[in-house]
UniProtKB/TrEMBL annotation:
The keyword Hydrolase applies. Keywords: Hydrolase. Residues 56-270 form the Beta-lactamase class A catalytic domain. It holds the Pfam family Beta-lactamase2. It catalyses: a beta-lactam + H2O = a substituted beta-amino acid. This is Serine hydrolase. GO terms for molecular function: hydrolase activity.
Length: 315
């Protein structure tokens, strides 16, 4: 027997049928309406020509909401930029009362991953959680980062937070059950240039975990020891929040710049690089510096600042 298709039933099916679309739209509703910047897009595409590998770029002027997207939704290895999501996971646990930012941790040799600062501690050494977070974001300490990943509940818990907050492609792979294939392909973590850039914006605008947690996280990201690539091409008196990452075939950097004429965020990620050398003129590192220079001159055309002669010897 055929049921009558009443207006009420039609409304119900309409709601069900569009709910998935609405949720997808709502995932990044905090971004607002964006418009492509055709001029800057052409300049960046020209900059990327001839690069021996895959590259993705996302740029957004936070004042005008004009964007550039070149492979911005393609998945790339995070390398150490995964330490931003790990920090979000830690602060979510703090927000829930399961951790304390100033609590004392006890290091054990079983936590050792490499001989960074945390990995060089003696068994039984005590260190505040806040120090480990600082070392993870500032000098990119790997042992400390894996320790914090575990304290945050592990990769699965962090991934649940990412999914709930509108980041469907950004995931922790390492030491996360069920993601072994992803780890084999992408390493510690995976993301897209757009998602990583917008995660940094989310923190900047106080929308990650809570306003106070976002404030603390953003301050941590403003203390970057590894400032020899894109950051070296910006005036030293300009506030930035950043995180970079590198493995043999991938070089990445996400930066939010407090430029005089308006803040902008950008993220450049590479993969499948033919140039695997760990030297300053690695093709990926060079591209990071060139993009930073291009964006600064584009958004601040009246600026006469240039890196001091001989600056490169310090990196």
């Amino acid at each position: 027997m055929r049921k009558r298709f009443t207006p009420a039933l039609f409304l119900l099916f309409t709601i069900i049928g569009t709910s998935g679309w609405y949720m997808a739209l709502a995932q990044h509703s905090f971004v607002g309406v964006t418009k492509g910047d055709k001029k800057l897009t052409r300049q960046i595409q020209e900059l990327l020509k001839g690069f021996n590998g895959d590259v993705g770029v996302y740029v957004r002027n936070l004042k005008t909401n004009r964007v550039v997207m070149v492979n911005a939704d393609t998945v790339f290895p995070t390398a150490s930029t995964i330490k931003i999501p790990i920090m979000c996971g830690v602060f979510d646990k703090i927000h829930q009362g399961e951790l304390s930012y100033q609590q004392e941790l006890v290091y054990r040799d079983s936590l050792h991953y490499d001989d960074g600062i945390v990995g060089s501690l003696k068994d039984g050494a005590k260190i505040p959680l806040s120090y480990v977070v600082m070392l993870m974001e500032t000098i990119s300490d790997n042992t400390g980062s894996l320790w914090l990943q575990a304290l945050a509940g592990g990769g699965a818990t962090i991934n649940n937070w990412l999914a709930a907050n509108g980041f469907p492609q950004t995931r922790v792979n390492s030491r996360t059950p069920g993601r072994e294939a992803n780890r084999s392909r992408y390493g510690w973590g995976q993301t897209t240039p757009r998602e990583l850039g917008e995660l940094l914006v989310m923190i900047r605008r106080g929308r990650a975990v809570s306003p106070d947690a976002s404030d603390r996280m953003y301050r941590n990201l403003g203390r970057q020891f590894w400032d020899g690539e894109g950051l070296s091409q910006l005036p030293p008196d300009i506030k930035v929040a950043a995180k970079n990452g590198a493995v043999n075939q991938s070089k990445s950097e996400v930066v939010l710049v407090h430029a005089p004429h308006g803040e902008y965020v950008y993220c450049l990620m590479t993969k499948n690089q033919k140039d695997e050398r760990w030297v300053r003129d690695n093709e990926g590192y060079v591209l990071l510096r060139k993009l930073a220079t291009l964006l600064w001159s584009y958004y601040e055309p009246s600026s006469q600042w240039k890196p001091a002669e001989g600056y490169e010897k310090w990196w």
